[in-house]
Amino acid sequence: MDFSIGELSKQTGVKVPTIRYYENEGLIDTPLRTEGNQRRYREADRDRLRFIRHCRDLGLPMPAIRDLIELSQHPDKPCHEADRIAEKQLASIRERIAHLKRLEAELVRISASCGGNHTVTDCNVLRAFGDHGQCLDTH
Q1: For 2-77, CATH number?
Q2: Domain ranges of the chain
Q3: Sheet containing 32-33: order of strands
Q4: E strand or H helix that includes residue 33
Q5: Hey, which of 22, 57, 75, 132 would disulfide with 27, CB 3.0 to 4.6 Å?
Q6: Could you give the CA distance from residue 130 to residue 135 in angstroms, rounded to a whole number?
Q7: How far is CA 38 from CA 3, 4, 14, 33, 50, in A?
Q8: CA–CA distance, 106 with 138 (Å, rounded to integer)
Q9: Is-contact 60 85, C-beta < 8 A?
């Protein structure tokens, strides 16, 4: 079975320009073309796009995805490299969560500092947004 780029997009949830980008980047094989020069993709391309999309949904950067694709081409290799990539992504996500928690705490503090009982001239929220020095934490 083969698919047009539009059909492939619908089945994978990957937009057409992104499919072309992945093709240009070598993440998916260059598709066959019909006599009318229409791209025709195979089930393996669909599976690869689903893999890439899920990796992107998990926040993996393109170099890591490229490494995982390369690794998948060698089924007899040990999978410690895949484990390392997953662990590195987990550490990155945990760092971002910690950063977001610091931002949340600072925004809670800033929001509570004003209460809406002042004029804009005396607004603590506007002052805090305009002066990083008023923050209690580095974020």
Answers
A1: 1.10.1660.10
A2: 2-77
A3: 2-3, 39-42, 32-33
A4: strand 32-33
A5: 22
A6: 10
A7: 10, 7, 18, 5, 21
A8: 9
A9: yes
100-135 as b/e: b if 16+ CB within 10 A: eeeeeebeeebeeeeeeeeeeeebbbeebeeeeeeb
Residue with token string 């081409």: 73
Neighbours of 17 (CB within 10 A): 10
> Which amino acid does the sequence have at 69?
I
Does this model's pTM top 0.85? My answer is: no
pLDDT in tens, the chain (139 residues): 799 999 999 999 999 999 999 999 999 988 888 888 888 999 999 999 999 999 999 999 999 999 999 999 998 999 999 999 999 999 999 999 999 999 999 889 888 877 767 777 778 788 888 777 777 776 6
